[in-house]
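$ ./design --mode recover --in tokens.txt
reading tokens...
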């Protein structure tokens, strides 16, 4: 299996060659040159498999340059009940992403049972093991530099802690994350993890990362890398739980399901789109946004209009607060018949902050083939949905999953089970849970009091030179 760029001007690459990088050299995103097609016989055989074995079967279609036995061992180490142990609502940790039944034909799928209580662990844990394996084989090292406002940074640190030849330098806005989020990251004592709290906003932290990454000489000399949401391996890892959810919600492979996905950068639902392209019987992909509705607007109108910073709201489902969706280019590549010339033309506009409109094109006439529907949710909807789920089903939802359920209920099909992906646990969003329910969310017992642990963090002014100096002294 080789990987091509959505913009068509980069040489095809093997999996391990794109694993450690970000964008393709032509500015595009990597995708497999074709999607593997799953036969009915394979689907029947896969229904019996454990999560780790299923993950191996699926990933081995995309990763053909790691020996089978090595990949199998690596995947088996990643998807264990021990790593994904924070199940709720009576879920079976051995299933890794178990379903919670709300009512007949309506489920949530728990993707947030990993160490940081958000779905980013599902892919990031695999990435940690893949990075270590490939770096070891190649005798290389990497220094991951990132900026986070919460979920991504902590998932990256928990995935990379203790990994050989990997160091993580994670910038976060000083005092802007919740006490729980700070404790999650800053209490890590692993010598290869460095937390830098920048006295500024998330955007200041991100600007520093961009400035360092744009310094090609520095980047090469100090082996600076990233683990952002466009990384292909993250998307690939996420395909697996769509298959698992399908098997758990159905009795036979003649049935169809629908998935509702709380969406931000389009990484999660992009994996659902690929699972469907591979032949998984998905009737519908329901895309849910919060107040930042750039993707809902696209699926309703054919117009994709990236927002300015000023137009982007800070909401109570903060991991979906996006101005543009970094993985969306992958879907558009498929929508326009995989024609890179069209993608280049469209992204020439997007890269200048401009909109594009497909509504009058032949491409838009095909949108129905892709199974997408969409909707949006507001703070009031979120609060009401958290109350509704608690009252009706006795299930506590986090704010993002509440957005997913709100939109899912608008798009149910008769006799098709609807699976709402649970992207975080409510314990991460105590303030909004208190507002909705007047109670404290349940937190896994062994995370009680993590705010009291000793913290390891350096506070720094938002200064590129100072961050570079800090890195140079430690790589
Ligand atoms: C990252 C995240 C999302 C959005 O996922 P995308 O892949 O960016 O669409 C939704 N919910 C939570 C809790 C997240 O951490």
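writing sequence...
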């Amino acid at each position: 299996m080789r990987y091509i760029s959505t913009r068509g001007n980069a040489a095809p690459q093997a999996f391990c060659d794109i694993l450690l990088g970000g964008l393709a050299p032509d500015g595009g995103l990597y995708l497999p040159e074709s999607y593997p097609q799953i036969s009915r016989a394979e689907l029947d055989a896969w229904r019996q498999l454990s999560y780790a074995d299923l993950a191996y079967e699926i990933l081995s279609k995309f990763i053909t340059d790691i020996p089978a036995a090595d990949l199998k061992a690596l995947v088996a180490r990643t998807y264990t009940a021990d790593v994904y142990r924070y199940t709720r609502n009576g879920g079976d940790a051995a299933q890794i992403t178990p379903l919670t039944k709300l009512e007949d034909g309506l489920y949530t799928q728990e993707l947030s049972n990993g160490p940081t209580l958000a779905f980013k662990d599902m892919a990031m844990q695999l990435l940690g093991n893949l990075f270590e394996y490939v770096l070891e084989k190649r005798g290389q090292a990497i220094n991951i530099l990132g900026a986070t406002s919460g979920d991504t940074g902590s998932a990256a640190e928990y995935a990379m802690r203790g990994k050989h030849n990997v160091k993580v330098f994670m910038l976060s806005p000083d005092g802007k994350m919740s006490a729980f989020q700070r404790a999650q990251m800053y209490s890590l004592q692993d010598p290869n993890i460095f937390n830098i709290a920048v006295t500024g906003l998330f955007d200041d932290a991100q600007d520093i990362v961009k400035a360092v990454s744009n310094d090609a000489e520095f980047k090469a000399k100090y082996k600076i890398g990233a683990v952002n949401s466009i990384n292909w391996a993250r998307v690939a890892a996420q395909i697996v739980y769509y298959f698992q959810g399908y098997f758990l919600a159905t009795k036979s492979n003649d049935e169809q399901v629908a998935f509702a996905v709380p969406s931000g950068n389009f990484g999660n639902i992009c994996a659902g789109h690929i699972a469907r392209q591979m032949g998984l019987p998905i009737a519908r992909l329901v895309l849910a946004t919060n107040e930042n509705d750039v993707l809902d607007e696209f699926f309703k109108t054919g117009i994709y209009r990236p927002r300015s910073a000023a137009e982007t709201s800070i909401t109570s489902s903060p991991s979906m607060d996006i101005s543009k969706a970094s993985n969306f280019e992958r879907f558009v590549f498929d929508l326009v018949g995989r024609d890179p010339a069209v993608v280049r033309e469209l992204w020439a506009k997007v890269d200048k902050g401009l909109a594009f409109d497909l509504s009058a094109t032949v491409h838009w006439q095909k949108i129905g083939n892709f199974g997408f529907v969409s909707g949006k949710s507001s703070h009031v909807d979120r609060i009401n949905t958290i109350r509704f789920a608690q009252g009706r089903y006795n299930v506590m939802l986090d704010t993002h999953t509440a957005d997913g359920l709100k939109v899912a209920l608008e798009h149910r099909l008769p006799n098709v089970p609807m699976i709402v992906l649970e992207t975080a646990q409510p314990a991460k969003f105590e303030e909004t849970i208190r507002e909705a329910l007047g109670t404290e969310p349940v937190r896994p017992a062994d995370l009680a009091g993590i705010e009291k642990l000793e913290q390891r963090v350096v506070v720094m002014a938002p200064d590129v030179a100072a961050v570079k100096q800090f890195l140079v002294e430690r790589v």
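exit 0
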